[in-house]
């Protein structure tokens, strides 16, 4: 489990992939995330996260269509594996149980 | 518009940069993303900023996950390629089964030869290297400085004491006196309790110098007390079975009892010290009081050795410089000049023929060279067949090259194929060598073992051998194939000349033939010399003579034995003697002729023999008369060499003269001269020699028998012998067999050369067969056309034959002088030897020719008989 743990950024990318469904390719993921996070990201950061997650077995990918805008180069569409879904849910559970266990004081402070 | 165009496409350099750095499989996606991103940015910002962002993003792509790694990316690809290469290699083997079989068989034979030779050479080089202080252990040897210098491993008995008393260079000094075939009996055992064994009187220090560990007994007390003995575990088992051998008694020569106080571990096979029974040195005086005394300096007794362990700081050369002083102290002035001593390192003992070493090192190097030859012939075979076959693979190589295969890749592909075949051959050879080893051991009477798991040297040798074989046989064909031009190869227009052509192939075959012929000529020369040694007239009769030991030499016993065996039918003549006319050892002593006041400057060989000696062995008298019967030394016969050495002109001149020999200072009159006969092997010259009567020296009895109906005669002899000598072990030898044993080592070398010459010839034939197989396939059309045009069978056979005949003759021209030179050198070892005549060379070339023709003929006849319709049909 430890080896395959998701990093924080990776988790965000993974969730974005699930949200975008058939549109989940590099630049689209990047745009979406930049909007949500409200900060600039580099292609390298996104790609690294994607490749790492493919290696770890969270994502699968296949080539999609090519567009003029991309200089005739094909997109690569990513898709989350069932394993990724399970891990995400586990992490959510861990988080919410932690939230519940947090003292009131901490909550009101935010 | 142009301005816009310029900005809609991103700058070129980052893309190039990316292509260089990023993993290929990510490239399309990432480049696409970057472009899309750039266009997004163009809409948001100025062109300039978009470009800057683009460059910045490019730099940010440089992350380990995305970049070309050093290995990760290629690994998959490599296994696939490797698998493919393996498949192709196996397919090729299967497709060209006969070629593969010939290749593997040739390499296997070569490697078997190499493994066996390696094991044999290593075995001999390992002799007496296991002693922990081996580099400080020396043996003292004697040099006689007369007209010529002669050397002996034996030293005077008091040497040990003198070194201990007068010098300090040695840490330990030990005398050991080895004797063969002593009668050892076990009084406590029932039934057969008599054995003939080699024994040694040894000082206890012997076991401090050499590493022969005790498994029972106290190292500090063994052999210190008189009448104690130690034996090896093997002997203990033989004598006492399962009983505890400690403190048991053994009896030697029916006279002396010894108590066993220690058991030695069984001797390792690689030591020349083969004694297994050691007796307390203080008992030497019981056996020979004079020898054991301090005044036996002038007498050298065979088997008396002195081992020293030098102190670590002492150089052997310093000791050698001190020895003349020792000679001066213990000899008179004249003898001090003659008797010189030298240290011999223990590592030299096995190899130095001057001191009776077993095998000269040059024989080992010669053997190693033969091993190398075998490997070369096997590799040459491989190269030959592989280049011949290369054409079959032109298409494959063409396709590979067109698809981007590089030279290096093709080269290594071929090397990998060679490696596959070589490894197969190696495994096969290892297994077969194991199977062949017992026969080799039997043939050479040794105990070799081939086991990579116990033998570090072999374990390193085999991979190196494999590597050499692979590179030697694989690299040339590999280079050739990798160098094919894809266009020509694919058009099918590659011909022989592209793969090294016939001239190279010819060169290789000539090399092979030359090596085979070298070995064949060697074999023939050795065989002829061996036959000559066995059959040539030695100057006396050696057939149908049985040699019996004379166990007790009282006058009454001898005459009783004489009358006992003279009654046996088929016994024709009986002579009591010390040794047969040709024999190893016995006595060689100083001699004084006529009334001269000084000893002659040579030693004379003494043969004791009674009045029947001359007639039993058919020796020829050239002057004077035979010896009269006598029990002691009274008269002498000398040989012609002795007459010459005395400086006398004719045999008549020595008759009636007095002679004194250094053996018990015996004196007598010379009454006759015998014609020279060979008293040694043909390796050595005829020595000056005398024959005289003396009962106490008669250790053997020569019985000339009628060779018809031998078995009853032998058993009758045994019965009579046992009646006269009931307490001894009966043993007989035929004289001709005894003499054949002079050439044991020559015989061994002969057998080895025979074996390896046959292997070389078989490998050569395999190569030849493969070549002719290929040639037949190549010439199918030519033969067809010739036949259609009316060529006869003979002329087509000649097409094949002339090629090989020419190669054979060329090889012979190279091999013959080389063989002549090498064998002439070998023959120098024999004083009496054959001439290397034209006959030997003729025989060698005829033999090779015959073998080559047999190999070639089958395929050529098959090719010549093919119906031209079949060979010309398919176009």
Polypeptide structure, described:
The complex is a heterodimer of chains A (110) and B (875). Chain A is an alpha+beta fold and 110 residues long. Chain A has one domain: Winged helix-like DNA-binding domain superfamily/Winged helix DNA-binding domain (Arc Repressor Mutant, subunit A, Orthogonal Bundle), CATH 1.10.10. Chain A contains five helices and two strands, in the order αααββαα. Chain A has helices at residues 8-20, 26-37, 43-56, 82-101, 104-109, and strands at 59-66, 74-80. In chain A, strands 1-2 form a two-stranded antiparallel sheet. In chain A, a hairpin with a 7-residue loop joins strand 1 and strand 2. The two termini of chain A are 31 Å apart. In chain A, 27% of the residues are buried. Chain B is of the alpha+beta class and 875 residues long. Chain B is elongated. Chain B starts with a helix and ends with a helix. The model of chain B has no long low-confidence stretch (mean pLDDT 87). Chain A binds chain B through residues 25-27, 30-31, 42-45, 47-48, 51-52, 55, 63, 66-67, 69-71, 73-76, and chain B through 9, 26, 28-37, 39-40, 56-57, 60-63, 65-66.
Strand order of the largest sheet of chain B: 3-4-9-6-8-7
Report the end-to-end length of chain A measured between terminal Cα atoms. 31 Å
Mean pLDDT across every amino acid position of chain B: 87
In what order do the strands lie side by side in the largest sheet of chain A? Answer: 1-2
- pLDDT < 50 stretches of chain B: none
Number of domains of chain A: 1
The CATH C-level class name of chain A? Mainly Alpha
Major β-sheet annotation of chain B:
6 strands, mixed, barrel
Number of helices of chain B: 30
Percent range for helical residues of chain A? 55-70%
Mean pLDDT of chain A: 85
% residues in beta strands of chain B: 15-25%
Fourth CATH level, the homologous superfamily of chain A: Winged helix-like DNA-binding domain superfamily/Winged helix DNA-binding domain
Total strands of chain B: the figure is 22
Q: What percentage of residues of chain B falls in helices of 4 or more residues?
A: 40-55%
């Amino acid at each position: 489990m430890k080896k395959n743990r998701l990093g924080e950024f990776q988790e965000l990318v993974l969730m974005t992939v699930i949200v975008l469904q058939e549109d989940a390719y590099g630049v689209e993921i990047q745009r979406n995330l930049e909007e949500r996070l409200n900060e600039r990201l580099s292609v390298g950061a996104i790609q690294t996260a994607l490749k790492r997650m493919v290696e770890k077995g969270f994502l699968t990918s296949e080539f999609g269509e090519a567009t003029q805008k991309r200089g005739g180069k094909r997109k690569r569409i990513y898709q989350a594996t069932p394993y990724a879904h399970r891990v995400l849910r586990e992490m959510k559970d861990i988080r919410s149980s932690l939230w519940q266990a947090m003292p009131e004081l901490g909550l009101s402070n935010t | 518009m142009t301005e816009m165009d310029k900005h809609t496409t991103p700058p070129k350099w980052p893309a190039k940069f990316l292509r260089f750095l990023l993993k290929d499989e990510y490239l399309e996606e990432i480049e696409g993303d970057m472009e899309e991103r750039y266009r997004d940015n163009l809409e948001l910002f100025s062109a300039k900023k978009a470009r800057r962002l683009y460059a910045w993003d490019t730099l940010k792509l440089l992350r380990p996950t995305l970049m070309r790694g050093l290995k990760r990316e290629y690994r998959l690809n490599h296994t696939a390629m490797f698998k493919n290469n393996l498949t192709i290699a196996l397919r090729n083997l299967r497709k060209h089964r006969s070629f593969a079989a010939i290749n593997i068989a040739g390499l296997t034979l070569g490697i078997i030869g190499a493994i066996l030779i390696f094991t044999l050479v290593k075995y001999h080089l390992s002799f007496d290297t296991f002693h922990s202080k081996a580099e400080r252990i020396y043996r003292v040897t004697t040099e006689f400085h007369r007209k010529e210098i002669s050397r002996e491993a034996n030293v005077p008995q008091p040497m040990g004491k003198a070194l201990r008393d007068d010098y300090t260079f040695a840490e330990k000094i030990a005398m050991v006196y080895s004797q063969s075939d002593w009668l050892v009996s076990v009084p406590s055992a029932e039934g057969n309790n008599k054995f003939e064994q080699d024994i040694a009187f040894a000082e206890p220090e012997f076991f401090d110098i050499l590493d022969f560990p005790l498994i029972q007994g106290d190292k500090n007390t063994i052999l210190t007390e008189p009448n104690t003995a130690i034996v090896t575990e093997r002997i203990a088992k033989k004598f006492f079975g399962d009983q505890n051998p400690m403190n048991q008694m053994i009896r030697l020569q029916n006279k002396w009892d010894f108590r066993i106080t220690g058991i030695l571990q069984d001797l390792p096979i690689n030591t020349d010290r083969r004694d297994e029974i050691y007796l307390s040195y203080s008992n030497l005086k019981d056996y020979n009081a004079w020898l054991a005394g301090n005044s036996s300096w002038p007498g050298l007794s065979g088997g008396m050795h002195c081992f020293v362990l030098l102190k670590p700081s002492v150089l052997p050369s310093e000791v050698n410089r001190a020895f003349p002083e020792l000679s001066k102290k213990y000899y008179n002035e004249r003898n001090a000049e003659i008797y010189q001593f030298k240290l011999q390192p223990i590592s030299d003992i096995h190899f130095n023929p001057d001191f009776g070493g077993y095998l000269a090192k040059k024989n080992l190097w010669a053997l190693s060279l033969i091993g190398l030859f075998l490997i070369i012939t096997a590799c040459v075979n491989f190269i030959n067949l592989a280049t011949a076959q290369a054409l079959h693979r032109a298409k494959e190589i063409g396709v590979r090259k067109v698809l981007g295969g590089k030279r290096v890749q093709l080269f290594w592909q071929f090397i990998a194929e060679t490696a596959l075949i070589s490894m197969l051959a190696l495994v096969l050879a290892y297994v077969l060598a194991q199977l062949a080893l017992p026969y080799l051991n039997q043939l050479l009477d040794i105990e070799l073992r081939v086991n990579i798991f116990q033998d570090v040297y072999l374990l390193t040798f085999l991979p190196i051998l494999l590597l050499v074989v692979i590179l030697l046989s694989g690299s040339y064909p590999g280079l050739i194939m990798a160098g094919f031009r894809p266009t020509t190869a694919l058009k099918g227009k590659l011909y022989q000349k592209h793969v090294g052509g016939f001239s190279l192939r010819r060169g290789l075959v000539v090399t092979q033939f030359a090596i085979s012929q070298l070995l064949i000529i060697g074999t023939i020369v050795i065989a002829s010399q061996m036959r000559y040694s066995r059959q040539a007239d030695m100057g006396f009769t050696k057939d149908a003579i049985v040699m019996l030991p004379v166990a007790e030499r009282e006058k009454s016993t001898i005459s009783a034995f004489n009358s006992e065996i003279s009654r046996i039918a088929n016994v024709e003549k009986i002579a009591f003697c010390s040794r047969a006319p040709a024999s190893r050892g016995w006595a060689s002593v100083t001699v004084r002729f006529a009334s001269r006041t000084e000893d002659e400057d040579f030693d004379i060989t003494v043969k004791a023999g009674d009045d029947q000696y001359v007639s039993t062995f058919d020796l020829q008298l050239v002057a004077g008369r035979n010896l009269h019967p006598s029990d002691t030394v009274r008269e002498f016969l000398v040989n012609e060499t002795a007459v010459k050495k005395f400086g006398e002109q004719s045999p008549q001149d020595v008759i009636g003269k007095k002679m004194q020999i250094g053996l018990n200072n015996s004196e007598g009159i010379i009454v006759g001269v015998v014609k020279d006969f060979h008293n040694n092997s043909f390796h050595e010259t005829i020595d000056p020699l005398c024959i005289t009567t003396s009962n106490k020296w008669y250790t053997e009895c020569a019985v000339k028998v009628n060779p018809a109906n031998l078995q009853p005669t032998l058993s009758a002899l045994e019965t009579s012998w046992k009646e006269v000598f009931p307490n001894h072990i009966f043993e007989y030898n035929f004289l001709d067999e005894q003499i054949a044993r002079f050439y044991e080592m020559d015989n061994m070398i002969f057998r080895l050369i025979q074996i390896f010459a046959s292997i070389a010839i078989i490998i050569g034939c395999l190569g030849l067969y493969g070549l002719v197989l290929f040639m037949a396939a190549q010439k199918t059309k030519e033969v067809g056309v010739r036949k259609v045009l009316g060529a006869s069978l003979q002329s087509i056979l000649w097409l094949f034959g002339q090629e090989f005949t020419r190669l054979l003759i060329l090889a012979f021209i190279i091999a013959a002088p080389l063989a002549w030179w090498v064998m002439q050198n070998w023959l120098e070892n024999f004083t009496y030897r054959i001439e290397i005549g034209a006959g030997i060379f003729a025989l060698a070339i005829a033999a090779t020719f015959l073998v080559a023709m047999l190999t070639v003929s089958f395929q050529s006849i098959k090719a010549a008989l093919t119906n031209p319709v079949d060979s010309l049909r398919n176009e």
